[in-house]
Structure formats: C-alpha cells, structure tokens
Amino acid sequence: MVLKLYTYFNSINGKRAAITLHEKNVPFELHNIDLFAGEHKAPAFLEKQPFGLMPYIDDDGFILYESRAISLYIATKYADQGTQGLVPTEPKANALFHQAVYSEITNIEDPANKAVVEKLFKKALAGLDPDEEYYQKLITNLDSKLDVYEKILSKQKYLVGNEVTLADLHHIPYISLLPVTGCHSVDLRPNVARWFKDITSRKSWQAVKDGIKSTSTY
Amino acid sequence: MVLKLYGVAGWGSTNRILVILREKGVPYELHEVDTKNKEHKSAAFREKQPFGLTPYLDDDGFILYESRAISYYIAAKYANQGTQGLIPTDLKANALFQQALSNELCNFDSFARPLILGVLYQPQGVEVDHQAVDKMISALDEQLDVYDKILSKQRYLAGNELTLADLFHLTSGAVLPICGYHGLKTKPNVARWWNEISSRPSWQATK
C-alpha cells in the first residue's frame, strides 16, 4: 500500500519529510491537514500524533511522527534506491552525521523557528504584531551559529564531509524562510551561501518548496 | 587510549554522557573545562568544538561534540557490553526510537531547558521573571500530559525496552523540581517511568 503523508501541504516540517521521500524516489499520497481549522488538534489526529504536530506518516499501518525520524526511516528503508549515502554507515562518519543532525536542531532550528514564528506566524495565527527586539536577538544568535557553519563549510563541501547527507537537507525548510522575515544572513556568508544554493537546487526541494503534492512516479 | 571527555561535572550535557558511559561500563577521563574563565570560548577550545560549547569527546584523536551524538556513538561503539538494546536495530523499532529521540529534544528538552535557564541560570543581578516561568511551567506540563498518555500504553518511550531516548531525559528532568515543576512525580504513568529510570545505578552514580 502506498505511503501516506499527513500534513498541511505547506508545512515546514512536512516539507522536511517530503524532501527525503523525493530523494529516495518513494511514491506517496499527501493527505492535507487543515491547519487553519485546527484539524491537527482534533481527536482523530491526536490518536495518531499525540502532540498535535505535523507531519506523521502511515506506512501500511505503521505510524511514525517527528519529521527527522520519518526522514531517517525512509532513507534507511529505501537505502538501495534513489540518492545514496544520505545516512553514512561507517561508525565515525555515522557519529559525525548525528553530530550534524543534532547541531541543526540546537544551533539553527531553535533560533530560526522562533524567528519565523515571531515575524510570520504570530500575525497570521494569533493576530499579534511581531516583537522586533526579540526577533533581532534571535537573528544575532543565529548569525553567530552561521559564522561557525561558514568556517566548517570552508573546509568541506557539506556538513558531514564531501557528500550530501540528511543533515544538510534537514536545514532547508527553516532557512528558506529567513529571507521572507527580512534576514539575509545566508547570502552574507559565501560558503554557507554556496552550500545552501547547492542543496536547494536539488530536485527534491524544487518538488516541495511551493507545496507538497502526492507523487506516484519519479 | 582511554576516552577523554572535555566538559563540566554536574552540567546537564556532560552528565547526559556520563550516564551512558556508566550504562555501557566504558572507562573515561573527565577533563574539566574552566568555563568560569571562558575556556570554552577560547580559540584552542573552538579548534575542537567550533560552537564554543561543552562537552566534546576525544576518542584517540577522533573529536565529536553534541552530547546526544557522543552518547549515541558510545552506545553504538560498545554495543556488545553493558546494558543491551539502547539503540534498537530492527527497522521499525529503530524508527520509533528515532521518534522518541526527537521527542526528547523537541518536545521535552526545548521546554525544560528554557525553564531551567530562567530559574537557575539568570545572569548576576537579573531577577527571575516569575510570569515567564509560570508560562514555561504550563507549557512543559502540557507536553508531559502527552508523555503520560504515551506511557500509559508502553513501558518506555520507544516501546517496551529501555533506550537512549529515556536516559537522555534524566539530566534536565532531575532539576525540574528545584525549578518549581513537579509533574514528573505527579502524573501517574510518567512517575512510574521516571522512578524506574532515575533509580538506575548509572543515574545514581552521576547525579
């Protein structure tokens, strides 16, 4: 049975999972969740994803949530098809992979998520104006982390080494929204800009950036 | 050569790794980083950990940072000794394990850590913002209501076996009562789980 992805079609975290589906050429059905009607907080959704967050997948009855866990599952299950090497298996490379995956969450997702919510979602979802001072504090924090990325990416093509991995791809959805908030920190750092242009040119991001769609063939 | 951990005894992220080293019975040396004098922000330290954060691991010249990545590496490298099953290998069991790891960081620690910082680690002279703290306690409590539901159906967070995902909660969880949050003891299924994991010798030796 074809894999089902349950998420709002334009969800940041939904796109993270969808990128990997595309990288591995995995057919899937998008089941759109009505974000603005609060469908993700309704009992039927909470049965599957008890935190009321998107996305989750139903892989022939196997329910899984948290976009990075979904991404890792897809890359592992379909190891033999599509893009190779997304999850390095050699022990030290695997350790550096996990280091980069955790680095993304603690150093980038944390300030970027809050910046995007503050500047873009607070008005749309709660009708409140952004706190500019708070937003600037978040960007200053993010900038200090991107300075480190600039150094790392001056020595190697991608975050784990010279091959692309999920650790790189996981960064795309939040970072892609930063310019919309008025933050151009990526463009100001040549190596980060080079890296980000590379990973966002891939067909996987091109396929989902304007919204996730059911995909039956590749 | 024995593993060298560069961190701060008593700090959450260093302690997180010490629990796993103890579970797996792996010898190590803890090298204390002089954070009071900003050693972790020095150029020499940043050569190893470019974000200027503790801890990092030196395994015979192999440098690794991020406490959860270090813990994962130790559990995988020493898979055959000490506590078994901390990283499930079956495809679906591993996926549920990855889900639980993500829950720990994104749905628990991202709520617990700001609360801990807000109560215990305010800069000198800065008052605790009690309104903000109350909000954070409320938000954390909502997350643990979900944990209680999950733990009503299974013994641990990834299923019925203990994994790294459970153990990663110990260092932040243990400090929550001092911050005024007692949900780990008051929610019935969470309390059962918390008592189990916090009674383990590895935590008793670390806390």
Automatic annotation (TrEMBL), chain A:
EC numbers for this chain:
2.5.1.18
Claim: Transferase is one of the keywords in the record: yes
Q: Which PROSITE patterns does the record associate with it?
A: GST_CTER, GST_NTER
The record's annotation in InterPro entries points to: Glutathione-S-Trfase_C-like, Glutathione-S-Trfase_C_sf, Glutathione_S-Trfase, Glutathione_S-Trfase_N, GST_C, Thioredoxin-like_sf
Recorded superkingdom: Eukaryota
Which keywords annotate this record? Transferase
Listed GO MF terms? glutathione binding; glutathione transferase activity
Q: Name one GO biological process term.
A: glutathione metabolic process
Task: Give the UniProt entry's GO cellular component terms.
Answer: cytoplasm
Q: Which residues form the GST N-terminal domain?
A: 1-82
Stretches of the chain forming a coiled coil according to its record:
none
The UniProt record lists the GST C-terminal domain at 90-218
Catalytic activity from the UniProt record: RX + glutathione = an S-substituted glutathione + a halide anion + H(+)
User: What family classification does the UniProt entry report for this protein?
Assistant: Belongs to the GST superfamily.
Q: What is this protein called?
A: glutathione transferase
Organism from which the protein derives: Crepidotus variabilis
Automatic annotation (TrEMBL), chain B:
Q: Which GO terms describe its molecular function?
A: glutathione binding; glutathione transferase activity
Q: Name one GO cellular component term.
A: cytoplasm
Q: Among its keywords, does the record have Nuclease? A: no
The GST N-terminal domain, residue ranges: 1-82
* InterPro entries named among the record's database cross-references: Glutathione-S-Trfase_C-like, Glutathione-S-Trfase_C_sf, Glutathione_S-Trfase, Glutathione_S-Trfase_N, GST_C, Thioredoxin-like_sf
Which reaction equation describes what this protein catalyses?
Answer: RX + glutathione = an S-substituted glutathione + a halide anion + H(+)
Q: Name one Pfam family in it.
A: GST_C
* Keyword tags: Transferase
Query: Some GO term, biological process aspect, for this entry: which one?
Result: glutathione metabolic process
**PROSITE patterns (UniProt xref):** GST_CTER (PS50405), GST_NTER (PS50404)
Which top class of enzyme applies to this chain? transferase
Q: What is its EC number?
A: 2.5.1.18
Residue intervals of the GST C-terminal domain: 90-207
Q: Which residues form the signal peptide?
A: none
The protein's matches in SUPFAM superfamilies, at most eight in alphabetical order, are given as: GST C-terminal domain-like (SSF47616), Thioredoxin-like (SSF52833)
Q: Which family does it belong to?
A: Belongs to the GST superfamily.
What's the protein here called? glutathione transferase
Provenance organism: Crepidotus variabilis
